[in-house]
Specification:
JmjC domain-containing protein, CHP02466, Jelly Rolls, about 20% helix, alpha+beta, eight-stranded antiparallel beta sheet, about 30% strand
């Protein structure tokens, strides 16, 4: 897939998706319909990512198989090619419920830059450090607080709530860093797809406890 991504950077398939307003430097961003591209490797990756997310949604919401069968996952998806010095600034994805990043190739490690290409997820609880002492300064996860820094390995998938602010620190390797990202919003079967930001949740209220 790495070779194909680099080829598609030069001649991307025709697309009509909107550009991203997120500030980036040294990063190529594909159109936002990547998981719809007619390529067997892309379709295999799309199934891998969306199946894992679907399982997570089912477990965390306590949905039965029958309830999951009523849901449809809609998504935007794209890939990034990051070259040395490239980064993506702080942002979130307010019009989605879940986001994910799949690492195709993390690039060559930078021996003198430990945060090179790191995905940093910020804690939304701005008040949690209002008082610090030895009783709460060194809490282990998941009880601690502060940003979570993730160093990708090839083939790794990270899923997180879309409301979390996150960024990618400058990539200081000598090769390219290749990642695929996606945002998901969910509708019931038969509901219009709509675009993120519009949701009719009446049916969820009918779900028995």
């Amino acid at each position: 897939l790495s070779v194909r991504l680099l080829e598609w950077e030069k001649t991307p398939p025709e697309s009509h998706t909107r550009p991203s307003p997120v500030r980036k430097h040294g990063v190529y961003e594909s159109p936002f319909d990547f998981f719809f591209w007619d390529d067997p490797d892309v379709q295999s990756l799309a199934r891998f990512c969306l199946n894992h997310l679907g399982h997570l949604i089912q477990v965390l919401n306590g949905y039965s198989a029958e309830e999951m069968a009523e849901l449809r996952l809609h998504h935007h998806s794209w890939f990034h090619i990051t070259r040395p010095g490239g980064y993506t600034s702080l942002h979130n994805h307010a019009m989605a419920s879940w986001s994910g990043v799949y690492c195709v190739d993390p690039g060559q490690p930078a021996h003198d830059a430990t945060l090179s290409g790191t995905l940093r997820l910020f804690d939304p609880r701005s008040h949690v450090s209002m008082f610090l002492d030895p009783a709460n300064s060194y809490l282990i996860q998941p009880y601690g607080f502060g940003a979570v820094e993730h160093h990708f390995r090839p083939g790794e998938l990270v899923l997180f709530p879309s409301y979390l602010y996150h960024e990618v620190s400058p990539y200081e390797g000598t090769d390219v860093r290749l990642t695929v990202a996606f945002n998901v919003w969910v509708r019931y079967e038969g509901e219009p797809k709509l675009e993120p930001g519009f949701h009719r949740g009446a049916r969820h209220a009918q779900r028995s406890p």
